[in-house]
Amino acid sequence: MTTPADPSVKAPVLVFTPEEKEARRVAAQRAARRTAVVCCGVVAVMTGLSFAAVPLYDLFCRVTGFGGTPRVGTGPADSVSDRDMSVRFDANTSQGVAWQFKPEVRTVDVKLGETKTVFYKIANTSTRPTTGIASFNVQPDLAGAYFVKIQCFCFTEQTLQPGEVIEAPVVFYVDPALAKDRNLRDLTTITLSYTMFPSKDGAPLANAEGDKGKGNDKSQL
After folding, report:
1. Dihedral sign, CA of 80, 85, 86, 91?
2. Res 63 pLDDT > 50
3. Alpha helices in the chain (DSSP H)
4. Handedness of CA 188, 176, 193, 66 (dihedral sign)
5. Start-to-end Cα distance in the chain
6. Bigger pLDDT: 71 vs 170
7. How confident is the model at residue 162, as a pLDDT?
8. How far is the C-alpha of 141 from the C-alpha of 47, rounded, in Å?
9. For residues 47 and 59, what is the distance between their CA atoms, to the nearest angstrom?
10. Cα separation, 18 vs 15, whole angstroms
C-alpha cells in the first residue's frame, strides 16, 4: 500500500548562483536562435518546393499523360495499326488576349501510330504587338497517355505584330498501345484542346490587362 505524502514536508527549492543564472539565460537564447533558424529553413525549403512543383508536375504529366496531358515524343511510332481514331481539334482564347485562334481543320481520321500534321491559325486583331502562350489538354483524360506530340507550339511564347497572322503546326500520333487498354476499347474520338493566354516572362496570365478580344470569335481568320 502506498504511503501518502507528508504535507508538512516541503519540496526543495532550487537556488542558482548569478553565474548559473547567466549560463541558463545564454543557453535559452541559443536554443531560441536555433529554433528560429530551423523554422526559417523549413519555410525556405517549402517555398522552393512550391515553385518547383509546377515545372515538376508539368514534366510528370508530359511523361505519363496524367490528367489528359499529351506525352512528348521525339519521333514517329514504331508501328501503325489498323484501328482508326478521329481526332478533334479545339481552340479557345482568354479575355486578356485580343487574338483570333482556330484550327485549319476541325477533325482528322488517323490510324493508331500514324504521324499527322495539322495547323492552327493565330491572328493578332489588336493595334499593338502582343505576346501569348497556349496551354493544352486531351479528352478523355485517359487518352492523354497515348496522345504523343512530336512538335507543338504550346508553352512557347508567340509575339505577333498588329494584324499579323501565323500558322502554328502540331505534329502528333496516337500510340498503338491504346488498342490494348481495356478502358478505351470503345473509344472512337479524341479531342485536343488549346487555350491561348496573354503571356509574360514565359508564363500565362489569366487576368492580364490590355486589349480585350472576343473569346472565340474567329470570323476574320
Report:
1. negative
2. no
3. 18-64
4. positive
5. 97
6. 170
7. 95
8. 30
9. 19
10. 10
Q: How far lies 207's CA from each of 130, 160, 198, in Å?
A: 15, 19, 8
Coil, strand or helix at 81: coil
- pLDDT tier, 219 (very low <50, low <70, confident <90, very high otherwise): very low
Q: Tell me the pLDDT of the chain averaged across its residues.
A: 76
Q: Which residues touch 27 (CB under 8 Å, ≥6 apart)?
A: none
- Per-residue model confidence (pLDDT) at position 154: 83
CA–CA gap between residue 123 and residue 130 (Å, rounded): 11
Amino acid at 69: T
| Grid coordinates of 36 | 528560429
For the chain, percent helix, then strand, then coil, each to nearest 5?
A: 30, 35, 40
Three-state SS at 139: strand
pLDDT mean over 105-130: 96
Contacts of 81 (CB under 8 A, 6+ apart): 111, 112, 113, 176, 179
